[in-house]
Amino acid sequence: AQSVAQPEDQVNVAEGNPLTVKCTYSVSGNPYLFWYVQYPNRGLQFLLKYITGDNLVKGSYGFEAEFNKSQTSFHLKKPSALVSDSALYFCAVRPPSGNTPLVFGKGTRLSVIA
Amino acid sequence: NAGVTQTPKFRVLKTGQSMTLLCAQDMNHEYMYWYRQDPGMGLRLIHYSVGEGTTAKGEVPDGYNVSRLKKQNFLLGLESAAPSQTSVYFCASSSDSTSGGETQYFGPGTRLLVL
Fold first, then answer.
1. Cα separation, B98 vs A90, whole angstroms
2. CATH code of domain B4-114
3. What is the pLDDT of residues B50-91, one digit of tens each?
4. Domain ranges, ordered by start, for chain B
């Protein structure tokens, strides 16, 4: 069965510094990988996804993620963090066997400090 | 284009009461999902539907029932609410795709408190 691990419950970073939110996955075959963001009292918003092709995926709000097959990772990155990036971030995976529901990680809370 | 909407936004129930959560989408999506979000647990899939008239169990289906009588609506029912069902419930939808790369779109959530 597929699974996603987000090893950090909380990430703190100073405004202007680069940020990384980690995600590793376990799935048979080539995965479809997603990142979502949740602001307080809101639903999840799609940030970016990896389906195939270039391992570096660019998404909304200046975020990007790098698919690393050998390390089974899909870390979310941003070169310069903003206070407004503070939110809960979820990594999700779907196996390549049809349109099955996403499996989500437990989430990482990002706090950007001014 | 409202996307995915959920009704109600907040509800308080007493143990043993029943209620129905309504999810509606206007994107003509085939697939719809119900998740619950609990602190430290992430999102867990309750039930989902791959088309009108179909439903399937997810990771945590016990205590819940669903119906998809119309393509645009997906209802989540609690027949006899328990305090363990206190949670935030999210509905999502996605289009049909054999490639599997379709994005799921989420509603704003329903906060349920069972006393």
1. 24
2. 2.60.40.10
3. 999 999 999 999 999 999 999 999 999 999 999 999 999 999
4. 4-114
B15 contacts chain A (CB < 8 A): no
Tell whether the model's pLDDT for residue B98 goes beyond 70. no
Tell me the C-alpha distance between B115 and B109, whole Å: 19
Calpha distance A19→B40 (Å, rounded)? 22
Within the 42-101 window of chain B, which residues sit less than 8 Å (CB to CB) from chain A?
42-45, 48, 50, 58, 90, 92, 94, 96-101
Condensed to tens digits (0 to 9), the pLDDT of residues B7-17 reads 999 999 999 99
Q: Which CATH superfamily is domain A3-113 in?
A: Immunoglobulins (2.60.40.10)
User: Given a cut of 90, is residue A57 above it in pLDDT?
Assistant: yes
Give the strand pairing for B87-94 and B105-106: antiparallel
Q: Per-residue pLDDT averaged across A51-63, rounded?
A: 91
Q: Please list every residue in chain B whose beta carbon sits closer than 8 Å to the beta carbon of residue A51.
A: 99, 101
The residue assigned the tokens 């209802």 is B75
- The domains of chain A are located at 3-113
